[in-house]
Amino acid sequence: MSDAVKTQTYTLNLGPQHPSTHGVLHVVVEMDGEYCVASKTKIGYLHRGIEKLAESRTYPQVIPYTDRLDYLSGISNNLAYVLAVEKLMGVEVPERAQYIRMITAELMRIASHMVGIGIYIMDLGAVTGAFYPFQLRERVLEMLSQLCGARMTFNYIRIGGVAADLNEDFFKHYEAFLKECPAFIKQYHTLVDDNEIFHARTKGIGKITAEKALNYGLTGPNLRASGVDYDLRRDRPYLQYGKYQINVATTEHGDCYDRYMVRMKEVEESFRLIQQFIQDIPEGPIMAKVPKVIKPPVGDAYHEAENPKGILGCYVASDGSTNPYRVHFRRPSFSNIAIYDEIFIGHKMADLVAILASFDIVLGEIDA
């Protein structure tokens, strides 16, 4: 090749400033003109040592720390940790508490997806698209705040049950949620789905085959967007999910557009499930009889939950004391970003932003 047609590559840093990469993620990309030819994703800027901190806390004291993992899905994180501890202790949770857990987990899924979808659309340049989802998220947070007094770090799930029962104020906000959610879903599909600019920015961008998604350990909406029909709630049910038909949303192309569409379909399914759970919830206690001082037997346990970002697994090891000997989280965002350095290659810089945003990552979870 002659010198006349050779091009010189250059290095460009995305992040780790927060507005650049959805948290303090650092992506070093090598560009040839407008196209990415190499990428190196760097993490660790937000490391807070939650797993290590857990070793010096009692089992109940660990629960608030789990809210700080995926801080947009606090109740779901509470649940995965508590399920692992209950498995270790052999605790049977009352049925009513299990239903409340499912209701709040599905509400959490809707709230999380609203942020993920809204910020995704904003990253593509449509600021209006970010404001609409936050209205529905606000309805969800109003309901959850009636249960625990918090709007982001909930600390609601307890070892053996939940902190408080559904109350009258919860149902007041629930009635408004019932009216507004279907109208919002219809409105947002109209606003976004067939938008020409949205199509141009997302269709065919960041495509991931089913085989590649599985090889990289993707889970959640990012996996199902590649056509892999797998959801823990249906395929390895926990709580009372096994009693219900779970319609798992999947798409075939594995591109940025499909990752958006899967999350929208999951919001619709969560809305349907919440209504069924509230209709079927039995009367009874919301807490099992657990000791005031929790000392699980020597051993270990692992439990997984289908969180909004994907599968969150929690491993807990006990030495028989009041503090966990070891706690480790299998974080879905951490596993999902491993594929970035491969799928970025060959795309323009604007496409890299679309791909990154379409994964709906949270750095608090990645750097736990």
Structure description:
- The chain is of the alpha+beta class.
- It has a single domain, classed as Cytochrome-c3 Hydrogenase, chain B.
- The protein has 16 helices and 8 strands.
- The strands form 3 sheets. The chain has a 3-stranded antiparallel sheet with strand order 1-2-3. The chain has a 3-stranded antiparallel sheet with strand order 6-7-8.
- A hairpin with a 2-residue loop joins strand 2 and strand 3.
- Helix 3 runs antiparallel to helix 4, helix 6 packs antiparallel against helix 7 and helix 7 runs antiparallel to helix 12.
- The longest helix has 29 residues.
Short description:
This protein is of the alpha+beta class and 368 residues long. The chain is built from 16 helices and eight strands. It has a three-stranded antiparallel sheet. A three-stranded antiparallel sheet has the order 6-7-8. Strands 4-5 form a two-stranded antiparallel ribbon.
Backbone CA Rg: 21 Å
CATH architecture: Orthogonal Bundle
Query: Ranges with pLDDT <50 over ≥5 residues?
Result: none
Work out the helix count.
16
State the name of the first-level CATH class. Mainly Alpha
* Largest β-sheet summary: 3 strands, antiparallel
Judged by helices, strands and strand pairing, the structural class is: alpha+beta
**In CATH, what is the homologous superfamily?**
Cytochrome-c3 Hydrogenase, chain B
What is the count of β-strands?
8
The neighbouring-strand order within the major sheet is 1-2-3
Helix fraction, binned, reads: 40-55%
> What would you call the quaternary organization?
single chain
Head-to-tail CA distance between termini: 48 Å
Q: Which percent band covers the strand fraction? A: 5-15%
